[in-house]
Design a protein that fits this description.
CATH class of the largest domain: Mainly Alpha
Shape: globular
Strand order of the largest sheet: 6-5-7-8
Helix content: 40-55%
Strand content: 5-15%
Order of helices and strands: EHHHHEEHHHHHHEHHEHHHHHEHEEHH
CATH superfamily of the largest domain: 2-methylcitrate dehydratase PrpD
CATH architecture of the largest domain: Orthogonal Bundle
Radius of gyration: 22 Å
Distance between the termini: 47 Å
Number of strands: 8
Number of helices: 20
Structural class: alpha+beta
Largest sheet: 4 strands, mixed
CATH topology of the largest domain: 2-methylcitrate dehydratase PrpD
Length: about 500
């Protein structure tokens, strides 16, 4: 790996292309280096994972809304269009709107892969825009499954490398500001574009996808699922403009009025961004991890610990009156983003939105502790949130930051990087129950790491009752052949809802 030193430059310094981060990212995207077999295997896993969580969300209101918007637009004339999750694959729309609809479906349940470091990320958000462009231009450009895999590997590499080095949330900028550039670069790799074109697309994608983190603060709304889909849509449009010869703000990161100077650490800020050398394999996808549970990733290990405690102390933990308090000693991020350190009263409100509850570790830990399980629908239902004994326990749970768990959270050593913490349960009789967990069971270093079998099982579980049995088998067979797919097979990288699943849904109307 190489390290790119990133800082603000005055306009009169005339920073050359080669010294700009966007150019370095473009060089990485244009590098024709082959992929390692384990990276190819993991790309296939994540394509299956995305489809799984999309299947489970097809009838949810934000997904229905985004799908209806996509189908309000005709297929653009430059290609064959792209498919939309849930719909008949013969019905296509323009790639940017397919990426929009599919991106919302993938993110709606907050149930796909994650990478956490200086910044948060869900690198699987790169997949919908890359696949949409591939389907649209497969016939015209002879794109294959191997091209798709290479594009996705680039998207993961860039988003994860940026997340390792550059904190956005510290300055209340939403994490999708890393996704716009990574998706644009991934599309550049997919299409085999030159460095200059990719460079301009990255700059435009970044410029149009910087927004505040209010979408993940307080009363969290349905925009949380739309934000990454918007970034993917903007990335496609940025690539389109760049291919037509249009240019972007330069230097986008380093300029006097650029991203660093005014949105991040300011004129004196600097970063060390790790990037593969030219000719070095793109392997960052292997640093990411998926979710076994439908909740914010920083809650994954805590759900597993709660399940373990439920089995060990069922008589004690079933009764809130036996418990005086529960304190989760954890990282800065967990405490301030999904814990009591956020100072969001909504995190303790039974009437809060699902999006808010999935960012409330006090709620999640209470339910998992009482149920010994977690379900992507039942655990968030209004009935579950209003259960009196749950509310009583919920309001006894708080978080505190622990310096060692914060250090481990930020460690770039995969062997010690951790997202859990230590729980101290103080009982009404004065006794204590103390336990800890470092990583989720499904994490590569966890008790039950996810492999192909678990990704397939997750797809079957979430697709059950949504897709017909034949459709489940068709998709799994095709997805597992992704690196070998021909141009005419790429259109099959979608899922079609079973008869009646989408019938009768209220379709919202708008401008289109």
């Amino acid at each position: 790996m190489q390290t790119h030193h990133l800082r603000t430059h005055r306009s009169d310094e005339d920073l050359p292309r080669e010294g700009q981060l966007a150019w370095q990212l473009a060089e990485l995207a244009a590098d024709p280096v082959e992929l390692d077999a384990d990276v190819v295997d993991m790309v296939v896993n994540r394509v299956i994972d995305n489809a799984a969580v999309a299947a489970a969300s097809l009838t949810r209101r934000p997904v229905v809304s985004a799908r209806s918007q996509a189908f309000a637009h005709p297929v653009s004339i430059g290609g064959e269009g792209a498919t939309v999750f849930g719909a008949d694959p013969a019905r296509r729309t323009s790639p940017e709107w397919a990426a929009w609809a599919n991106g919302v479906a993938v993110r709606e349940l907050d149930y796909h892969d994650t990478f956490l470091a200086a910044e948060y990320s869900h690198p699987g958000d790169n997949i919908p825009p890359i696949v949409a462009v591939a389907q649209h231009l497969a016939a015209a450009r002879g794109l294959t499954g191997r091209d798709v895999v290479r594009g996705i590997a680039t998207g993961y590499e860039i988003q994860i490398d940026l997340a390792k080095a550059i904190s956005l949330h510290k300055h209340k900028i939403d994490h999708v500001a890393h996704l716009g550039p990574s998706a644009a670069a991934g599309i550049g790799t997919l299409l085999g574009l030159d460095r200059e074109t990719i460079f301009q697309a990255i700059g435009q994608a970044l410029h149009t996808t910087t927004a505040t983190r209010q979408s993940r603060k307080g009363e969290i709304s349905s925009w949380k699922a739309h934000a990454p889909a918007f970034a993917g849509k903007m990335a496609i449009e940025a690539v389109d403009r760049a291919m037509r010869g249009e240019t972007s703000p330069v230097p986008i990161y380093e300029g006097e009025d650029g991203v660093i100077a005014w949105l991040l650490d300011g004129p004196d800020g600097s970063y060390e961004v790790p990037l593969p050398e030219r000719g070095e394999a793109k392997r960052a996808i292997l640093d990411s991890y998926t979710k076994e549970h439908s909740a914010e990733y920083q809650a994954q290990a805590w759900i597993d610990l709660a399940r373990r405690l439920h089995e060990a102390y069922p008589l004690i933990l079933d009764d809130p009156e036996r418990i005086e308090s529960i304190v989760l000693h954890t990282s800065h991020h967990t405490h301030y983003v999904i814990g009591s350190g956020a100072n969001d009263p909504q995190k303790y409100d039974p009437d809060a939105s699902r999006e808010t509850l999935d960012h409330s570790i006090p709620y999640i830990f209470a339910v998992a502790l009482q149920d010994g399980a977690w379900h992507h629908e039942h655990s968030y239902s209004p009935e579950r949130a209003h259960r009196p004994e749950t509310v009583a326990l919920w309001r006894k749970i708080s978080t505190v930051e622990d310096a060692e768990w914060t250090r481990r959270y930020h460690s770039l050593d995969i062997a010690e990087k951790a997202f859990g913490g230590r729980v101290v349960i103080t009982l009404a009789d004065g006794g204590e129950i103390v336990d800890e967990i470092a990583v989720a069971d499904a994490h590569p270093l966890g008790a039950r790491p996810f492999a192909r079998e678990q990704y397939v099982q997750k797809f079957r579980l979430l697709a059950d009752g949504v897709l017909e049995a034949d459709e489940i088998e068709r998709f799994l067979e095709l997805a597992q052949r992704l690196p070998e797919l021909s141009p005419d097979e790429l259109g099959g990288l979608t899922i079609t809802a079973g008869p009646g699943v989408l019938a009768g849904l209220a379709i919202p109307t708008g401008l289109f």
